[in-house]
Every structure is written in C-alpha cells, then in structure tokens.
C-alpha cells in the first residue's frame, strides 16, 4: 500500500503546532515530527503500523516519526493534533527520557493511553493547557507551550514505565543521534544536488554505514527519504502558490520536470497538475 511521509512547516517561533481536524484520511502516512492525538468526539479505528485501535472520545495516542498511521472513520471524528520537532524537546542527552516512549518500546507498548490509568487525567490536562496556550498566544506563550509539553511527556514516560513498556537500552537514541545531523542537512539543502558521498562527508562516517544506519533507523532508504522531503515541499508550493510546475520542480530539488512528475506520481499516486486541481 502506498504511503506518504509528510513534512511540517513551522511558521511560528517554535517547532510546534496544533490543529483540530475532522478530515478523512485517504492515505497511510507518517511525519518527520512527533505527534500526539486527543480525540474530541466520534469513533472509528486507528491503524498504526500493524496494530488497530478502537477510537472513542477522550482517547490519547502517541505516534513517532517512523510509524505509518491512518484514522479510519465515517466522517464524524474530531481530533486535536499536536505536532513538534524532536529537537524542540530533546537537545541534550539528559533530555532523552522525554521522547523515549516514542522510540524505545517493547512488546507491552500500546500507542493508546488507557483512560482508567492514574496518568491519564494528568496527560489530558497538560494537552488541554497546551491547546489553551496555543490558541490564546498571550505573552510568553512559547515558554509555556514547551513547559506544558514537557510535563505531558514526563507523564507519558511515567505511564509507560509503570506498564514496563519501555526498553532498557538506548540503541535507538544512539542510532538516531548518528543520523540526526544528516536529517537536518537534508531538510536544509533538499533543493540542491545531494550525493551519498556528500552526506557521508558531512556526518564523517562511511557511505555504506550511513546508508545502513539511516535505513534501519528511519525505515526508509536515504534517497527515498530525500524524495519524500522534496515531494512534500512541492506539495506545499502547489497548495500555496500559483507557480508553474517546472518552477516548483526546480525549487524542490528536481533537475527536470519529467523526473519530478515521475517521483511525485510514485509517492502521491497522481501527477502534480492533477494534485493541484484536486485541492482547488
């Protein structure tokens, strides 16, 4: 089944955004960021990788940047979505535990938080405070967004620790740390020609090792990831500008319109012009 890796554009002063949606999802997707969901109303099923969770009002879900997911519902589902960049919270080794539930999991792990757990009301209240701060954006709101998010993530950590649902080693953290600089480099230079040698030089590790670690960590090959980033940027330009397809291709890192059309259709299932028509 085809899937989409979405790239978020954070327009504000922090790498965090929040929105409410009731839109039906037509494609399994994942993000380049971390995601928390709070179900406001409705029901359905949440497909996250090879698991399916029933959805009810009040449910809370935690989803990492590798997990393919899609909410299946009849159109009556309303979801509060919180999305943030890993680096917004995890900048030092000491801060890794805040994001550990996204990466270090064992067989007891569930993306869905049990509503009858002691941690549930604390997590829910932190998410609702995040919603209030993000909507009102009074003086100092970026500070409080980070503070409430860290409280919520601390409660997630405590919840999963009590369930014995986290791994005890830090292999994922170490692997992600090794490729983090190349992920950031790709997002800063996707509109330029990129080669494996260039990226390996940037990370100061061998080409073969970079390819292997990147694929194992991101669940996507290095150049498939670059194509996803470029297509996501092209989608954003198709949605927000009236520039020609050729100009958009060049601004998104594609050296020709034919190559752009081929890659865009491979990932999205339709050509760029058709995609633009479908959203207008």
From TrEMBL:
Occurrences of domain HTH araC/xylS-type (ranges): 180-278
Keywords (A to Z) from UniProt: DNA-binding, Transcription, Transcription regulation
InterPro entries, alphabetized: AraC-bd (IPR003313), Homeodomain-like_sf (IPR009057), HTH-like (IPR037923), HTH_AraC (IPR018060), HTH_AraC-typ_CS (IPR018062), RmlC-like_jellyroll (IPR014710), Tscrpt_reg_AraC-type_HTH (IPR020449)
A UniProt-annotated Pfam family: AraC_binding
PROSITE patterns, A to Z: HTH_ARAC_FAMILY_1, HTH_ARAC_FAMILY_2
One MF term in the entry's GO annotations: DNA-binding transcription factor activity
Protein name as annotated: Melibiose operon regulatory protein
Source organism (scientific name): Acetatifactor muris
């Amino acid at each position: 089944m085809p899937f989409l890796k979405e790239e978020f554009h954070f327009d504000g002063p922090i790498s965090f955004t929040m929105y409410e949606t009731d839109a039906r999802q037509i494609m399994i997707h994942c993000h380049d960021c971390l995601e928390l969901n709070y179900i406001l109303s409705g029901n359905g099923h949440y497909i996250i990788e090879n698991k399916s969770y029933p959805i009810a009002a009040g449910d809370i879900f935690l989803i990492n940047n590798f997990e393919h997911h899609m909410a299946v519902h009849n159109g009556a589902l309303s979801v509060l979505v919180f999305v943030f960049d890993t680096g917004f919270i995890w900048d030092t080794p000491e801060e890794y535990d805040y994001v550990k539930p996204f990466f270090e999991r064992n067989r007891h792990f569930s993306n869905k938080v049990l509503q009858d757990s002691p941690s549930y009301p604390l997590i829910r209240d932190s998410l609702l405070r995040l919603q209030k701060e993000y909507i009102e954006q009074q003086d100092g709101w970026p500070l409080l967004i980070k503070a409430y998010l860290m409280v919520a993530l601390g409660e997630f950590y405590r919840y999963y620790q009590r369930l014995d649902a986290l791994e005890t080693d830090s292999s994922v953290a170490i692997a992600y740390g090794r490729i983090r600089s190349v992920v950031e480099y790709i997002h800063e230079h996707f509109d330029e020609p990129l080669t494996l040698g260039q990226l390996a030089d940037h990370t100061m590790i061998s080409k073969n090792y970079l390819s292997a670690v990147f694929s194992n960590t991101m669940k996507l090959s290095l150049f498939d990831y670059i194509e996803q980033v470029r297509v996501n940027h092209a989608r954003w330009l198709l949605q927000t500008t009236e520039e020609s397809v050729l100009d958009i291709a060049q601004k998104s890192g594609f050296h020709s319109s034919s190559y752009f059309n081929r890659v865009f259709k491979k990932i999205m299932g339709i050509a760029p012009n058709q995609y633009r028509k479908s959203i207008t």
